[in-house]
Design goal:
510 residues, alpha+beta, five-stranded antiparallel beta sheet, 15 helices, 17 strands
C-alpha cells in the first residue's frame, strides 16, 4: 500500500510541494517543478518564497511566524487562488490547497497546486513518473533483501511516506483518486469531490466503480478500462449531475506480469469546458461577423457604384444639352438622376434600419389608424417607382377600418414588399387587406417568382435569390421586414412559384 500512495504523489496531475515549519522545501513533485521551471536540486533546501512574486515573497516568512504564534490559519485547509513566479520571472495563476501534518516531532506543510493557465501540461510528467515509480519499487525490494539490518529503518520511512501520501490524497482538490482491482471494485478512494458530493470515501471502498457511473457512459468507459488492464493509459470524459469529469487511467501494479490494479485520477473540468464553449461561441460569432462584413463590402461597392456612375453620366450629358430644343433630353437624364438618388436613399435607409434594429432602438408603438386611408397613401407613395404599364390595385375587405398598429414599422414593411414587387414584376401589383381571424395585409405580384431552393434562405441578411440577376438590391429588405414584423408581434408568410409570381402576407392576431 505505501507504493500506491507514492504512485499517487508522483502521478497526480497537480503540483505538490512539502515544506518544513520555517518554509524550507523538503520535497517537490515533477508537476510543480514543471510549473515553476526549476530542477529539484535548485529548490529542495531553499525557502518556498523563491517561487513567489512580490509582495508575497517578502511577506511569507511573516505569514508562517504569525501562524505559529497565533495558530490562526489564513490559507491552511481553505484553499485560495494565488500567483507563482517561474524561474524566468514570469507569473502564472494557480489554485493552492495547504494542509498541515506532523512526522514525529516535526511539522510539515503540503501545498497542492492546480495550474489555472494550462490544464493538460502534466500528462507527460505522470507517464515519466509512473516508470520511475516501478524502478523505485524494484530497487527498494532488492535493498530490503540484501540489507535485512535496515528493515526497521525502512519500515519507519515507509510509514512516514504513507502518512504523507494519505494527506495528499485526502486533500486532492477538485477531483478524486481511485484504485480498482480486476473486477472494477474500489480498493482505495480519496479526494475533495467525495466531500462535495456529501459522500465519505470509505463508503465507496469495496463497491463496483460502475455503480457511480451514469448508465449512458458505462459501456464506453468499460472499454477504456479493459485497455488500461492491458497496460495502456487512457483518458476519457463523462458528465454526471451537471458536472464534467476528466479521468486519467494508468496501470498501477502487476502480478505475474499482468496488471491487477489501475489508478484513476479524476478532475472536475466543468468550468474549463464551459470556458471552451464560450470561446468557441465567440469565435463562431466573430467568423460570422467577418463573413457579413465581406458580404457587406462586396454588396455596397456594387450597389453604390452602379447608380453613382449613372448619376455622373447623366449629369455630364445634362451639361451638354444647352439648346432649348434639347429640353426633352435634359428632362430624361434629370429623371434618371432622381431615380438613382432615390435608389441610393433606399440602400442607405436599409443600412440605417439594420443598425437601429441591432442596437435595440426600434420599438413597437401602436396607434389607431384608418387602414383604408393608410393603404391608399402607401400605394400613392409607390407610384413614382412603377414601370411602364405597371399599376397598383387595392383590394380592401375589412369590417372595421380603425386598427391599432405602429404606423412607422407598417409603412416600412409595405414599402419594402411593394418595392420588391415592382422590381421583380412588370404588370399589376395587388394590395389585399382582410380582417378575418385578425388582420392580414398581402402584396401580390405575377413576376419572376422564387425557386424552392432560394426560399429556404430568403430572409437571411445579404441573401438574394439566384434569379435576381442584375436587378438592383442589397439583400437586406426581407431581413428587415421579418424583424420589423417580429417587433410588431406579427407573422410573415409567403407563397411563390418561378415565373408565376409571389404573395407576401403580414398577419396580426386579434
Amino acid at each position: 500500500m505505501p507504493s500506491k500512495y507514492q504512485s499517487i504523489f508522483e502521478t497526480t496531475l497537480d503540483g505538490i510541494i512539502v515544506i518544513n515549519r520555517v518554509g524550507i522545501i523538503e520535497e517537490i513533485n515533477s508537476a510543480a517543478m514543471f510549473l515553476f521551471q526549476y530542477q529539484k536540486k535548485d529548490v529542495v533546501g531553499n525557502n518556498i518564497k523563491m517561487l513567489m512574486p512580490e509582495p508575497d515573497k517578502r511577506r511569507h516568512d511573516g505569514y508562517i511566524a504569525n501562524y505559529h504564534a497565533t495558530r490562526n490559519p489564513k490559507i491552511i485547509g481553505m484553499g485560495r487562488e494565488v500567483e507563482g513566479q517561474k524561474k524566468d520571472g514570469s507569473v502564472f495563476p494557480f489554485r493552492l490547497a495547504v494542509s498541515e501534518f506532523t512526522v514525529g516531532e516535526n511539522t510539515f506543510f503540503t501545498g497542492i497546486i492546480h495550474d489555472l493557465s494550462k490544464q493538460k501540461d502534466n500528462e507527460k510528467i505522470i507517464r515519466e513518473y509512473a516508470e520511475r515509480l516501478e524502478d523505485k519499487v524494484e530497487e527498494r525490494t532488492l535493498e530490503l533483501q540484501k540489507e535485512m539490518e535496515l528493515k526497521a529503518m525502512a519500515q519507519k520511512a515507509l510509514q512516514e511516506s504513507q502518512k504523507l501520501y494519505v494527506t495528499i490524497a485526502e486533500n486532492y482538490p477538485n477531483g478524486s483518486i481511485t484504485v480498482l482491482d480486476e473486477d472494477y471494485h474500489v480498493v482505495f478512494a480519496e479526494g475533495s469531490e467525495f466531500k462535495s458530493a456529501e459522500l465519505k470515501a470509505t463508503e465507496v471502498i469495496g463497491k463496483n466503480y460502475f455503480d457511480f457511473v451514469p448508465n449512458e457512459y458505462k459501456e464506453e468507459i468499460e472499454n477504456y478500462l479493459i485497455e488500461v488492464f492491458k497496460g495502456t493509459e487512457k483518458i476519457f470524459e463523462y458528465e454526471k449531475e451537471g458536472k464534467i469529469n476528466r479521468a486519467r487511467c494508468v496501470p498501477l501494479s502487476y502480478e505475474n506480469y499482468k496488471v491487477d490494479q489501475i489508478l484513476i485520477v479524476e478532475n472536475n473540468v466543468t468550468q474549463e469546458k464551459r470556458a471552451e464553449k464560450e470561446i468557441y461561441a465567440a469565435l463562431t460569432k466573430e467568423k460570422q461577423l467577418n463573413e457579413l462584413k465581406t458580404k457587406f463590402v462586396s454588396m455596397a461597392s456594387h450597389e453604390f457604384r452602379t447608380p453613382l456612375s449613372s448619376i455622373l453620366s447623366s449629369a455630364t450629358l445634362v451639361g451638354k444639352y444647352t439648346e432649348s430644343s434639347q429640353q426633352d433630353n435634359r428632362l430624361k437624364h434629370l429623371k434618371k438622376i432622381s431615380k438613382n438618388v432615390k435608389n441610393l436613399t433606399m440602400i442607405l435607409n436599409d443600412f440605417l434600419s439594420l443598425e437601429r434594429i441591432e442596437g435595440g432602438l426600434i420599438k413597437n408603438n401602436p396607434e389607431e389608424i384608418d387602414i383604408s386611408e393608410f393603404m391608399e397613401g402607401v400605394a400613392e407613395d409607390a407610384e413614382p417607382l412603377l414601370k411602364k404599364d405597371q399599376v397598383i390595385q387595392l383590394d380592401i375587405r375589412v369590417k372595421n377600418n380603425i386598427i391599432l398598429l405602429d404606423i412607422f414599422l407598417l409603412r416600412n414593411i409595405l414599402n419594402n414588399l411593394i418595392t420588391n414587387a415592382i422590381k421583380y414584376s412588370s404588370d399589376t401589383i395587388t394590395l389585399i387587406v382582410e380582417d378575418t381571424n385578425g388582420l392580414t395585409i398581402s402584396v401580390k405580384d405575377s413576376g419572376i417568382g422564387i425557386s424552392e431552393e432560394d426560399q429556404v434562405s430568403l430572409f437571411n441578411r445579404f441573401y438574394r435569390a439566384s434569379n435576381a440577376g442584375q436587378i438592383q438590391g442589397t439583400g437586406l429588405g426581407l431581413n428587415i421586414v421579418k424583424r420589423y414584423v417580429n417587433i410588431m408581434g406579427g407573422q410573415i408568410i409567403f407563397e411563390s412559384k418561378l415565373n408565376k409570381g409571389s404573395t407576401f402576407s403580414i398577419k396580426f392576431n386579434e
